[in-house]
Design goal:
Family: Belongs to the DNA polymerase type-A family.
CATH superfamily of one domain: 5'-nuclease
Low-confidence stretches: 1-5, 320-352
Distance between the termini: 85 Å
Structural class: alpha/beta
CATH architecture of one domain: 3-Layer(aba) Sandwich
Shape: globular
CATH class of one domain: Alpha Beta
Mean pLDDT: 88
Organism: Effrenium voratum
Keywords: DNA damage, DNA repair, DNA replication, DNA-binding, DNA-directed DNA polymerase, Exonuclease, Hydrolase, Nuclease, Nucleotidyltransferase, Transferase
Catalytic activity: DNA(n) + a 2'-deoxyribonucleoside 5'-triphosphate = DNA(n+1) + diphosphate
Helix content: 40-55%
EC number: 2.7.7.7
Radius of gyration: 32 Å
DNA sequence: ACGGCCACTTA
DNA sequence: GTAAGTGGCCGTC
């Protein structure tokens, strides 16, 4: 090429940076918080991340050291989705979903951004960005220059070599040979071989079935490369592996072609022309101003000498973005600047004048810029230093804290240490009960030196942790609250980062600290299992060496503080402060106390039941073996399927997702109805087996040896809808349906001299629906105290409520439930055992009788597609980020979930309101009733015998009026409450 | 030892 | 058709 001759070649002094633009966009979009431009709501989160990274790289190179600045620089993009790889293998990247709607306009914007910073922007028809990067990297390296690829894409790792490095700026991670080895189990030169075997589900590279990265690395390390392996495949010992390697040899060869990057693309832009030129300040500032990135605008202006005020924001079209659609919402948001800066502590400088979104983003940007360095933390070993940390917390007015203990079960956990952080990057760990982890032989386990005596530490900490003017910030505070309360400390006031995240982002992903840290800080905290191990070899935290414990524990406090600074301002920007303050935060001590109280179970009774169940199972077992003509494992659906549909030749078996015979209760009951004897015995056996293993056998193991009671753990941030969940043990699914099951429930008993009171809302979800969808007939029926299912049947079929056929009522009941679940003809047909057509007719009739319900459903669907979330009557949000998927089945699923969420979630909100008020109302009435359990529409209390009559009305009153005064529900709520010696009779 | 699948339990 | 959690089996690590 003639141009190449006129430009000097690269030299050993040159440094070429190649930014993988396409993957950066996706990564930035998902990793960074969503951010929209102020005036029109144009999504610019990924653009912001990109500009910050680009500017940093241009300024500093890869390290802040001198001499590492790039001499050559380019951002490489994919041109279109079809490349030469699709000719080799049409399925390549075929299962890639379409990019999210709000990401599309950012593709063009990032190209604009690149040009605004005067950086070459390269893409080429028929080739992926990866191929261009491979080609440029090879050319530059051959000319002796240093090359750095900026990407997190593992597919580029094959390029790494002496001259070619790779860095993931989003995760602040440098990839060299050791990192490649860690990821693929081989060096960069063998990455292709491993990938061709392991395949890649994301890119739809097939590989060889049954071979993952681990096995692939093993094989390549043994045989050298793919072809040698395939040539010697016969010698592989493992049957399945050998067969697959032989059968799928050609598939592996195709895979190898797919993953091999093309290093000889006839590039249209020569590598030597990718030189760095000075940033044109006015041009860059114009772009940044147009985007509304105030922090970066200022920084770039300072560095380039451009006058911010003198530059007009750049004007350009953004394809795929409709401005008018978003104006209304944005205008509303702008008004809500209220106290967002104060919300997160130090509201410094200009923040007070910014809108909440901008505060939140500016905060995130600043915090991300401070590196998390787990070697920089302090181990506090003296009372004096601890006092200084507490003073610092009091001075600041807030402190992040975290406890380290001997157990994940807060009810059995002993305090081992505690960490504090008052500003990002600064944190300490206070070891209190670490013991010698090594010398078991010499009776190790002695308390290690240089630890503050527990009692002295608590004396220093207590005033600060209980100080009303110091906000304590924790991740999943309920745990720490339970631990600290046993040491006589009542933490207040507090914030919980897990609940903050749940409040603003429910449905977008988990709310655990590690996940939040990666999502918001781009930082992966030290995993617990790297400190304590896992499984059988797991050690308790008191055996962890103190320096290691400091790195882990102080990092948790550091990360928690950062998350708080990022998430707290979002309460204002997202209008979620009331939800957090009335439905989330106050639940922490309420649930903690319920967990602490626990509930009594009758151990003897459960043990007897286990015996009874075992006997019943044994009887059924022999009958089953007799009928089957052989013994087999009844608990194995696979073996059972072979007996029923293979050996016995019964036809009509359904398939499960994995293609195996379905042996679900539904299938077995259908077979029983056809006159087969075996299936119903299997169903009966399975029920007994479940009752025995999950309940009568397992529950006694949860009895706490100190309290003699069972303490469940409630998760506040586990569901998308706002419901709680219960685990270890799950006390929200204790049997009630069958006689045998109710025996389990009878084992939940009141303390001597007490009764259990169960108070449950009647039809709360249908009432909520009647209110939200504003259905006159339903509301009237609830006001008149009618049988709602009978009334539904009467409306639909015109039959009088008096003397109604129970089967007709049953059908109406199924439809009512179906409505709550986002009805489909398929589901209703399944439930009622009728045809899809009949079910469709029922639904049609229902919608004709209750047109408001149909309107409600359509409105919800529109909302979720437009906003990505739906809301409950109290403003809780449930997000469905994938609802706009093209897959019709998935789409319909998310739509049903979105229809259900406001109904289920509003009911959950009402329960939460009742729970938050309950304790005070009881104590005001001088009642000693204790709230023990919550089961979605039911609360269980333990009440002194003498107070039962006085307590019931109070409980009912609180529950029935739980919406007051925030909201006037247009249907009455009805609560039924009863007292008895055990849960079954109270229910 | 761990994870996916299937089955069962609840509201 | 919605929302959850647990236990046994069974294949992979």
């Amino acid at each position: 090429m003639s141009t190449q001759d006129s430009i000097p070649a690269l030299t050993a002094d040159d440094h070429l940076i190649l930014v993988d633009g396409s993957t950066f966009i996706f990564r930035a979009y998902h990793a960074l918080p969503p951010l929209t431009r102020k005036p029109d709501g144009l999504p610019v989160g990924a653009v912001s991340g990109f500009c910050n990274m680009l500017w940093k790289l241009l300024q500093e190179g890869l390290t802040p050291e001198e001499g590492d600045e790039p001499t050559h620089f380019a951002v490489i993009f994919d041109h279109s989705s079809k490349t030469f790889r699709n000719t080799i293998y049409p399925e390549y990247k075929a299962n890639r979903p379409d990019p999210p709607e709000d990401l599309v306009p950012q593709f063009g914007l990032i190209r604009e951004a690149t040009r605004a910073f005067s950086v070459p922007c390269v893409e080429q028809e028929g080739f992926e960005a990866d191929d261009l990067i491979a080609t440029y990297a090879r050319q530059a390296a051959e000319q002796g220059a240093k090359v750095t690829i900026v990407s997190g894409d593992k597919d580029l790792m094959q390029l790494i070599g002496p001259k070619v490095g790779m860095i993931d700026t989003m995760k602040n991670k440098v990839f060299g040979e050791p990192e490649v080895f860690e990821k693929f189990g081989v060096g960069p030169d063998k990455v292709i071989e491993v990938q061709s075997l392991a395949g890649d589900s994301v890119d739809n590279v097939p590989g060889v079935p049954g071979i993952g990265l681990k096995t692939a690395a093993l094989l390549i390390n043994e045989f050298g490369d793919l072809e040698s392996l395939l040539a010697q495949a016969e010698t592989i010992k493992q049957n399945k592996r050998r067969e697959n390697l032989i059968e799928f040899a050609d598939q592996a060869r195709v895979s190898r072609e797919l993953v091999t990057l093309k290093q000889d693309v006839p590039v249209e832009v020569p590598v030597a022309s990718l030189t760095v030129t000075d940033v044109d300040g006015a041009k860059a500032v114009g772009f940044l101003k147009a985007m509304g990135f105030s922090t970066l605008t200022k920084r770039v202006a300072e560095e380039t000498g451009a006058e911010v005020d003198a530059v007009e924001p750049a004007d350009f079209q953004v394809p795929g973005w409709d401005v008018p659609d978003h104006k209304g919402r944005m205008a509303e948001r702008t008004e809500a600047a209220s106290g967002a800066a104060a919300a997160a502590g130090e509201g410094a400088g200009t923040e007070g004048m910014m809108v909440p979104q901008t505060v939140a983003e500016a905060r995130a940007e600043t915090i991300r810029a401070i590196a998390v360095d787990s070697s920089a933390y302090e181990t506090v070993t003296s009372v004096e230093r601890l006092q200084e940390w507490c003073d610092a917390a009091i001075e600041k007015g807030y402190v992040a804290f975290d406890t380290e203990t001997t157990s994940l079960d807060a009810m059995q956990a002993d305090l081992v240490g505690l960490s504090l952080s008052t500003e990002p990057g600064q944190a300490c760990y206070v070891p209190l009960a670490h013991v010698d982890g090594e010398g078991d032989l010499l009776g190790g386990g002695g308390l290690l030196p240089d630890q503050i005596p527990l009692k002295d530490a608590m004396e220093v900490l207590k005033p600060m942790l209980e100080d009303r003017s110091v906000l304590k910030i924790a991740q999943n505070l309920k745990y720490d609250w339970l631990v600290m309360t046993r040491y006589g400390i009542d933490i207040a006031p507090y914030d919980d980062t897990m609940l903050l995240s749940y409040t603003v982002d429910a449905g977008k992903g988990g709310n655990g600290m590690d996940e939040l840290s990666e999502r918001w800080l781009g930082h992966k905290p030290i995993p617990f299992k790297e400190v304590c191990g896992s499984g059988k070899s797991m050690i308790t935290f008191d055996k962890v060496a103190i320096d290691r414990a400091t790195a882990y524990a102080a990092e948790d406090a550091d990360v928690t503080l950062r998350l708080w600074q990022i998430l707290k301002p979002r309460l204002a920007s997202d209008h979620m402060a009331t939800v957090y303050e009335t439905l989330e935060r106050p639940m922490v001590p309420v649930l903690a106390r319920m967990e602490k109280r626990g509930i009594s179970v009758d151990r003897q009774m459960l043990s007897r039941l286990s015996g009874d169940f075992a006997q019943g199972m044994a009887g059924l077992e022999s009958e089953i073996y007799e009928l089957a003509g052989e013994t087999f494992n009844i608990g194995s659906p696979k073996q059972l399927g072979e007996i029923l549909f293979g050996k016995m030749g019964i036809p009509g078996g359904k398939k499960t997702k994995t293609g195996a015979w379905s042996t679900s209760a539904q299938v077995l009951e259908d077979l029983a109805a056809e006159g087969h004897e075996l299936p119903s015995k299997i169903v009966a056996w399975r029920q007994l087996s479940k009752l025995k293993s999950t309940y009568s056998d397992a529950l006694p193991g949860y009895i706490n040896p100190e309290t003699g009671r069972v303490h469940t753990s409630y998760a506040l941030a586990a569901t998308t809808t706002g419901r709680l969940s219960s685990s270890e043990p799950n006390l929200q699914n204790i049997p009630v349906r069958t006689e045998a099951g109710r025996k389990i429930r009878q084992a939940f008993i009141a303390e001597k001299g007490h009764k259990l009171v169960s108070a449950d809302y009647s039809q709360i979800e249908l009432r909520v629906l009647a209110h939200m969808a504003d259905i006159p007939q339903l509301k009237k029926a609830f006001e008149d105290g009618l049988d709602i299912h009978a009334m539904t049947a009467s409306e639909m079929f015109g039959t009088p409520i008096e003397g109604m056929d129970p089967m007709v009522r049953r059908q109406a009941k199924a439809i009512n439930f179906g409505i709550i679940y986002g009805i489909s003809a398929f589901g209703l047909a399944n439930q009622l055992g009728i045809s899809r057509g009949e079910a469709g007719d029922y639904i049609k009739t229902y919608f004709e009788r209750f047109p408001g319900i149909k309107d409600y459903m359509e409105t919800i669907k529109k909302q979720v597609h437009a906003d990505g979330f739906v809301t409950t009557i109290f403003g809780r949000k449930a997000h469905y980020p994938e609802v706009n998927t093209k897959n019709p089945n998935h789409r319909a699923f998310y739509e049903r979930a979105a229809i259900n969420a406001p109904i289920q979630g509003s009911a959950a909100d009402i329960l939460r309101r009742a729970m938050v008020r309950m304790e005070e109302r009881l104590s005001d009435a001088k009642l000693d009733a204790q709230m023990l359990l919550q089961v979605h529409d039911e609360l269980i209390f333990e009440v002194p015998d003498a107070q039962v009559d006085a307590t019931l009305p109070v409980i009912r009153d609180v529950m029935e009026n739980a919406c007051d005064p925030a909201l006037k529900l247009t249907v009455p709520l009805q609560v039924d409450a009863r007292a008895a010696g055990n849960w079954d009779e109270a229910h």
